[in-house]
Structure formats: structure tokens, C-alpha cells
Write a structure and sequence with these properties.
about 350 residues, alpha+beta, Aminopeptidase, Elongation Factor Tu (Ef-tu), domain 3, eight-stranded mixed β-sheet, about 30% helix
Length: about 350
């Protein structure tokens, strides 16, 4: 794909509706872009596997992983006045979601617009004006005047998925920078697709299986199944990682947008395999691929579940920095996605059984 087609891939992925447990629309996009690259299989958790055409079955296995789900909500109850009570799928800060637009899926599979309701200041008490309501106190207004209308006319059901209503766009004032939803981890999914495409037709010393894992945002549930299916010898986990360049002291910035992908040494769920990590960092330096290094005190990725599966799996995380992650709007850069794919492809092309054994 040329650059415009790569950006279009990211746009389609970002705009697709796919909160945790309801990733089908996003997987449809990924199938379209990967069906020529290998044999596709899927399990009941909606993990999508791309078994590369060139795989031999007798080489060490590299697992590429990116999660297909996004943070969002689910309808918990319908109030008598037609408003919707909801719960979170993944975590968004309450202060970032009030008065935002959402899309609610009805019984026909259509996504209906609504807003997360907020009380006008005219009706707020002095105390309320200084408080951020909890998620359990918020509701969604889809224009229904009663529970009957919401259910029978609009087709809203308990358990319906709710997605942020955001359309992908390029920043006019900053070419190759984008605004959109679900860059965590659709930008990682895009990087994985680009990696698989770059490796197509190449004779490697390893077999490569791409996985688009489900339900990462609710506890890395999908990858706990997919890693058992793939049984990799090593794994590369793509992620849309939180950028820290708008609020951190300069000496603490480790994931700046536009500075390349971030390789994470440590977070709350994983210590990256130091030998595999050094191999990746040295290769990036040798090939002049820009990248950043980070040590995070919190957070976690699919890598947290991958690296302790089976008898332990050497794993690294290649994160594409995204500003304002886990909110309606994120900001990310094309060249970070491009560099992430280049690095992952180079790693796959340079791995050998002997190198993997040294990890």
C-alpha cells in the first residue's frame, strides 16, 4: 500500500465500531486487508488469526499481536423517561465523557446517535457545579421520551454496546497528524497489517502468525486464549500507547507523538525480556528507525498475559504514542505507525532459531 492507502486503512479502522466483546465490525475490516496474506481463522472470543502463507510449520513461531477492541460502554438499564443507564467497557475518566456524543447499537444492528446527558448549570446546586458525576450517575439521551419508545421504536436492548461518536480526520495545520477515536489499539492493528504486508512473499527463518486479539480493555481476555492457540516462541505486541509529551517534565517524556514508536521496558504487568528488547533496540539503531524507550509505573498491555503463558514467552511491546488515550479523541502521527511496522518487520526478518534461543 502507498501512504494514502495506509492512512485510509487507519481511518477505516478508527471509524469502525468495536467495543470489547463486540469487535465484529473491526474484524471485518481486518479480514478484508489480510485475506490475501494467509489462512484466516477465528475463535469464539473473536480473536482473528492470520497464518502467513509462507509458514512452514517447522520453524520457530513469532506471534504479532494487536487488540481489536476499544473502550466504550454498555446499556445497563432503560429509565422510565427513556434515558439509558450504562456501564463502562474499559476505563474512561468521568471528567472526559460528560456531554460527549455516542452511538448506541439497536436490535437491527444500527448505531443510533445520542449524548451523555449533563445537567445545565441553571439547575445545578453550588455543590454540583464543582463535582464530576460518577459513571453510575450519568445517563445517555437518544431522544426517547419513554422506556417503551426506547425499546419498541428505537430497538434498544439491555446489553447493547455504546461507542464514542467520532469521525477520523487529518489535522489541517499539521500534515500526517490525525484526530480520531480508538487509536488504542486500531493504530496498532494498522501497524500489524502493514508488517504482514511487508513480509508477504519473503522467505524467513521463522514462521509468523498475526493475531488481532479481543477484549484487551477488560482484562486482556482474548490474548489469554490466542497465545495458547499460537504457542509462539517469541511475541511482538503492538499497542496504542499513552503519550506523555503534553504534561510531563522534558526529562520524563518517553512517548512523544512524532518521535517514533515506544519500546516499553517495564509496566505494571510486564518486564520486557531484556535480551529481546536489546535486540530490537540495537536493530532500530542499525536501521535508523526512530524509537523511544519507556519505563512505566502503571498501565499494562496484552504483553502482560503473553509473557507468562506456556513456559514463558520472550515478549516486547512496540507502542505507537497517542495523546489523550481512553477518551473520545486521540491524536497520533502517521510516521510513528510507519516506523512501528518497519521495526516489527525488520525484527521478523532478522530473527533466527539461534537468536531466539539466546533470549
Amino acid at each position: 500500500m502507498d501512504k494514502a492507502e495506509q492512512i485510509q486503512l487507519l481511518q477505516i479502522l478508527s471509524n469502525s465500531n468495536g467495543v470489547s466483546g463486540f469487535e465484529d465490525e473491526t474484524l471485518g475490516v481486518l479480514r478484508n486487508y489480510t485475506e490475501s496474506l494467509g489462512r484466516l481463522t477465528e475463535d469464539s472470543l473473536r480473536n482473528l488469526y492470520v497464518h502467513r502463507n509462507e509458514n512452514s510449520g517447522n520453524k520457530p513461531v513469532v506471534m504479532l499481536d494487536a487488540h481489536s477492541d476499544e473502550v466504550g460502554f454498555m446499556v445497563q438499564a432503560i429509565l422510565p423517561n427513556g434515558l439509558l443507564r450504562f456501564v463502562g467497557l474499559g476505563r474512561m475518566l468521568e471528567c472526559s465523557i460528560q456531554a460527549q456524543k455516542v452511538r448506541v447499537r439497536n436490535s437491527k444492528g444500527e448505531y443510533l446517535p445520542g449524548i451523555i446527558a449533563s445537567r445545565p448549570p441553571h439547575f445545578a446546586s453550588p455543590d454540583d457545579k464543582n463535582k464530576v458525576p460518577s459513571l453510575s450517575d450519568m445517563t445517555i439521551d437518544i431522544g426517547a421520551s419513554s422506556a417503551q419508545e426506547a425499546q419498541e421504536v428505537f430497538g434498544i436492548r439491555i446489553g447493547a454496546p455504546i461507542v464514542p461518536d467520532v469521525d477520523f480526520s487529518e489535522m489541517q495545520q499539521k500534515p500526517d497528524w490525525f484526530i480520531g477515536k480508538a487509536f488504542d489499539c486500531r493504530i496498532g492493528c494498522a501497524a500489524e497489517v502493514l508488517t504482514l504486508q511487508a513480509l508477504a512473499g519473503r522467505d524467513l527463518a521463522v514462521d509468523v502468525t498475526g493475531v488481532f486479539s479481543s477484549q484487551e480493555e477488560v482484562g486482556t481476555r482474548g490474548v489469554k486464549v490466542s497465545v495458547k492457540q499460537v504457542k509462539p516462541d517469541v511475541a511482538i505486541c503492538f499497542e496504542g500507547t499513552p503519550a506523555d509529551d503534553t504534561f510531563s517534565e522534558s526529562y520524563m517524556i518517553q512517548a512523544a507523538v512524532g518521535k517514533g514508536p515506544m519500546l516499553r521496558h517495564f509496566d505494571a504487568t510486564m518486564i520486557a525480556n531484556p535480551r529481546f528488547q536489546r535486540f530490537a533496540l540495537d536493530l532500530a539503531k542499525e536501521l535508523d528507525i526512530p524509537c523511544q524507550e519507556a519505563v512505566r509505573s502503571g498501565g499494562g498491555t496484552d504483553g502482560g498475559s503473553i509473557h507468562i503463558a506456556e513456559q514463558g514467552i520472550p515478549c516486547i511491546v512496540i507502542g505507537v504514542p497517542v495523546r489523550y488515550i481512553h477518551s473520545h479523541y486521540g491524536i497520533a502521527a502517521y510516521h510513528d505507525m510507519e516506523a512501528a511496522a518497519k521495526l516489527a518487520g525488520a525484527i521478523c526478518a532478522n530473527l533466527t532459531p539461534e537468536i531466539i534461543a539466546s533470549f
